[in-house]
């Protein structure tokens, strides 16, 4: 990881550490801000937004905008880095983000393209629900 010079380097490093530790989740600025405050780190929301924008530009973090009404979510891009070929499942209870390669879902994308003339961007497609662990059921 390349170190940056300048003021607030510790805060920048702590932000990146948080994103890495939560790479299986979509996190928003409010969640990040609350975490930083709980760690005793003073980091304003405007600064968090600016830093996240830089990380997005650098290809380190992915930004998800669901609609124009809710704030964006962010996710650290791990070594695999490619979320464009699979879908995502997000648990509304524990906020876990599951990356899923599934032939059935790819079939849905194909159907939508072929029959409805719409190309689905799977990197931005998130299905919301409850994961097996939170639901207390065994997953396959």
Summary tags:
two-stranded antiparallel ribbon, 15% strand, 5 helices, alpha+beta, disordered N terminus, globular, 3-stranded mixed β-sheet, 140 residues, Dna Ligase, domain 1, Arc Repressor Mutant, subunit A, 39% helix
The biggest beta sheet reads: 3 strands, mixed
What is the third-level CATH name, the topology of the largest domain?
Answer: Arc Repressor Mutant, subunit A
β-strand number:
5
The arrangement of helices and strands along the chain is HHHEEEEHEH
Are there runs of 5+ residues with pLDDT below 50, and where? 1-6
Quaternary form: single chain
- Compute the number of helices: 5
Q: What is the topology, as strand order, of the major beta sheet?
A: 4-3-5
CATH superfamily of the largest domain: Winged helix-like DNA-binding domain superfamily/Winged helix DNA-binding domain
Distance between the termini: 36 Å
Strand proportion, as a percent range, falls in 15-25%
Helix percentage: 25-40%
- What is Rg? 17 Å
| Number of self-contained structural domains | 2
Q: What CATH architecture of the largest domain would you give?
A: Orthogonal Bundle
- The CATH class name of the largest domain reads Mainly Alpha
Q: Judging from the principal axes of the Cα atoms, what is the shape? A: globular
């Amino acid at each position: 990881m390349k170190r940056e010079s300048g003021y607030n380097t510790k805060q920048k490093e702590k932000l990146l550490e948080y994103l890495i530790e939560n790479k299986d989740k979509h996190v928003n600025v409010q969640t990040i801000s609350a975490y930083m405050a709980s760690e005793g780190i003073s980091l304003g929301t405007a600064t968090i937004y600016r830093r996240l924008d830089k990380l997005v530009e650098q290809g380190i973090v992915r930004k998800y905008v669901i609609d124009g009404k809710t704030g964006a979510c962010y996710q650290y891009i791990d070594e695999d880095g490619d979320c464009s070929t699979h879908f995502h499942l997000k648990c509304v209870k524990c906020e876990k983000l599951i990356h899923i390669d599934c032939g059935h879902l790819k079939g849905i994308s194909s159907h939508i393209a072929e029959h409805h003339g719409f190309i689905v961007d799977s990197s931005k497609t998130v299905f919301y629900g409850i994961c097996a662990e939170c639901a207390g059921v065994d997953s396959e």
